Amino acid sequence: MKDKFYENRKIILKGLVVAISILFIIRLFYVQLIDERYVLSANNNVLRYVTQYPARGLVYDRNGKLLIYNEAAYDMMVIPRLVRDLDTLEFCSLLGITPDDFIIKMERARKYSSHKASVFEAQIPKDSYGYIEEKLYKFSGFYVQSRTLRKYPNLSAAHSLGYIGEVNPREIEKDPYYKMGDYIGKSGIEKAYETELRGRKGLKIKMVDVFNREKGSYLDGRYDTSAIAGNDLTMTIDLELQEYGELLMQNKRGSIVAIEPATGEILALISSPSYDPNLLVGRIRNQNYPILEADSLKPLFNRALLATYPPGSTFKLIGALIGLQENVISVNTQYACAGVNAVPIKCSHNHRSPLSLLEAIEQSCNPYFWNVFKAVIDNPHYSSTSSAFEKWREYLLSFNLGKTFDSDLMIEKPGNVPAPEYYDKYFGKNRWRSMTIRSLSIGQGELLVTPLQLANVTAIIANGGFYYDPHIVRAIKRKGIIETLSYKKKETLVALRHFETVAEGMSRVYNSESGTARWYADTEILMCGKTGTVENPHGDNHSLFIAFAPRENPKIALAVVVENAGFGSTYAAPIATLMMKKFIQREFEKPYYEARIIETNLLNK
Ligand SMILES: [Zn+2]
After folding, report:
1. In angstroms, rounded to a whole number, what is the distance separating the alpha carbons of residues 359 and 532?
2. Structural domain boundaries in the chain
3. What spacing in Å lies between the alpha carbon of 293 and ligand 1's midpoint?
4. Centre of ligand 1 from the C-alpha of residue 367, in Å
5. Do the domains spanning 48-235 and 239-599 agree at the CATH topology level?
6. How far is the CA of 437 from the centre of ligand 1 (A)?
C-alpha cells in the first residue's frame, strides 16, 4: 500500500517535470520569434525610445537642512537619419547657437550613430524650454528629453558634496547601466553614493509620424517602465557649523575637520580656499573646471583629506600615551629641560625644570618628549632598536596613522609612518638609535598626517581610547525607511586608563595659567587642546591645533591647520575654540578675537 503510494507520486513528479520543460520550450520560442518586443526593436524608425531619467536622491545635513536638490533641465536629442528639410538658421537661432556649432554638434551625433538618438544640446534651462518645445514640430529628427540638474542652495561644503558629470567610456564599460550622455557622480558623496543616489532609469516608447509628431504611446505603454527616484541621504555635516568654519577660514589656506567623538560622524569638513559648488553644474562646468584647476590657490584640492603635514607638537600626546603604555614613564616622571637635556632639541619655553608629564604637555616641552621617546626606543626590554621602533610604529598604526580609513570618504592620503627598514636603508642596519631619529618625538622628521587623521586622534583622546572611522553620511532613506549606517568600534594599542592623563594635560593647555592656549580659555565650556607649530621649508610655519569639548562627555573633537600662519596659538587655537563654542552653544557672545580671525588675509604670504 505504502509502496504504491510512492509509485504514484513518482509518476506525478515525472509528469510535472516534462510539463514544465515543455512550457519552457514554448516560452523560448515565443520570446525569440513572436514576442512583440522583438518586432518593436526592428521598427526603430517609427518608434521613439525616450529614456525616463529618475530624480537623483536629495541630500540633507544632520539637522534636516537641504544641501542638494534637483532642478528641471532639458536635453535636445537628435536622430541624424531623420533630420531632413531643416531650416538650419531658424533652428540655430531657436537654440542660440551658431551655424558652426551646428555643424560640429551634428558631426558628433553622426559619429555616434546616424539612426540612434544622442544628445545634441545638453541642459537647456527650463525658462527657454517652453519656447523651443512650441517650435519643435518644424524640425524632424529632433526631440526633447527631460533631465535634472543638481542645485546647491548653500554654496557650502563643495568638496564633500562633490559633483556629477557625463559618463566617460571607461565608466560605461565598467557598468552597463550607463549609456552615453548619462550623468554619474564624479567626486564627493555624489560619487561615493552613486548607486544610492542615481535611482533607476525608465523607458517610454512613443510612436512618431513622419512629421516628427508624437502619436501616443506604443501599445498603450505596455512596455513602458517608469523611472524610480534615487534614495535620499542624510549627511553627518552640520551646515551651520560648516558655514561658520568656512567663514573663519576665508582668505586662508588650510582646513578644519570636526568629528562627533561618540559616533565618528564628521560635523564639519572645511578645506580653504573652496569654491561655489554650483560652478560645476551643467553646461558651465566645462568652462569653470579649467579655471578652478589652474588657480594657484588650488580650490579644488581637498586639503582636509589630501594635504599631509608633520603633526608637530600635537604628536607629543601620542608620545606620552606610548610612554605610559610601555611603562617607561608614569604621570610623575620628571625630566629636566636645562643643562645637558637642553640639547639636542631645545625648549623654547621659559618654565621650571625638571617638570612632570602634565606640565610638559601644558607647555609643550621638547626635551621632555625626546626623553620619553628615548626611553621607549632604547628600552632594554626589546632585543634591538629596530624591534622597539617596530612596536612604536604599531602604536601609531593603531591610531590609524599611516593608512586611510575604511569609510565613505572617496579620496584620502595615508600620510606616513616610517618603517624600520627605511632607516636601515638610510643609516645602515643597526647604525641608528633613538637620538638619530629624535625629531619624530616632536612630530617632525618623516611623520606625515592628514587633518582628518589628526582630528580622529583627538576624537580617540576625547573618547578615552576608542573611535569609529570618520564618515560623512549618516543615513540612507530606502523605500521610505531610514537606515542608519553602522561602523565598527575600534581601539588603539594603548590601555584606556592612560587617556585620562593626556586629557588632563590637554585641559591644562587651556586652563592653566601657563598653558599655550590660555588666552582662549572659555568661562562656560571646559575645553581641552594642544598646539602645534610645523616648520615649513617653503615659507612661514603652519599653525596647528587639536581640541575637544566639553571635557566630560565630549560633543566635538577637531583639528585645525592654518598654513603659513606662524604659531599654533595665533590662528589655529582661536579658530578651534570658536568652532567648539558654535557647535555647543549655537548662539554666543562673540569673543574679541573673532573679528580679527575673520578679517585676517593670509593668502598673500
Ligand atoms: Zn622645556
Report:
1. 16
2. 2-35, 48-235, 239-599
3. 44
4. 6
5. no
6. 19
Q: Distance from the CA of 362 to the center of ligand 1, in angstroms?
A: 10
CA of 521 to the centre of ligand 1 (A): 22
Topology of the domain covering 239-599:
Beta-lactamase (3.40.710)
Q: How far is ligand 1, taken at its centre, from the CA of residue 322, in Å?
A: 20
CA of 339 to the centre of ligand 1 (A): 11
Which grid coordinates belong to 64? Answer: 534636516
Q: How much helix, strand and coil, in percent to the nearest 5, is found in the chain?
A: 40, 20, 40
Output the 3-class SS for 313-382.
Answer: HHHHHHHHHHHHHCCCCCCCCEECCCHHHHCCCCCCCCCCCCEEHHHHHHHCCHHHHHHHHHHHHCCCCC
Predicted TM-score (pTM) of the model is 0.87
Please state the separation of Cα 126 from the chain's center in Å: 31
Distance 200 CA to ligand 1 centre (A): 63
List CB-based neighbours of ion ligand 1 within 5 Å.
337, 347, 365
Cβ atoms of residues 577 and 560 within 8 Å:
no
Ligand 1: centre distance to CA 320 (Å) = 15
CA of 450 to the centre of ligand 1 (A): 27
Cα 366 to averaged position of ligand 1 atoms, centre (Å): 6
Instruction: Name the CA radius of gyration of the chain, rounded.
Output: 32
Distance (angstroms) between ligand 1 centre and the Cα of 349 equals 6
Gap between the Cα atoms of 239 and 158, Å rounded: 12
CA distance 104 to 232: 38
What distance in angstroms lies between residue 144's CA and the mean position of ligand 1's atoms? 73
- With a CB cutoff of 8 Å and minimum separation 6, the contacts of 307 are 255, 301, 413, 450, 451, 561
CA of 332 to the centre of ligand 1 (A): 16
- pLDDT averaged over 10-residue windows placed end to end, the chain, 605 residues: 63 74 65 49 64 94 96 90 89 91 93 88 83 86 87 93 93 93 92 96 86 81 92 98 97 97 98 92 86 92 96 97 97 87 75 91 93 96 95 98 94 96 93 93 95 98 98 96 96 97 96 92 96 86 96 97 84 97 96 95 83
Q: Give me the architecture of the 48-235 domain, per CATH.
A: Alpha-Beta Complex (3.90)
| 126 φ/ψ sector (left φ>0, alpha ψ -120 to 50, else beta) | alpha
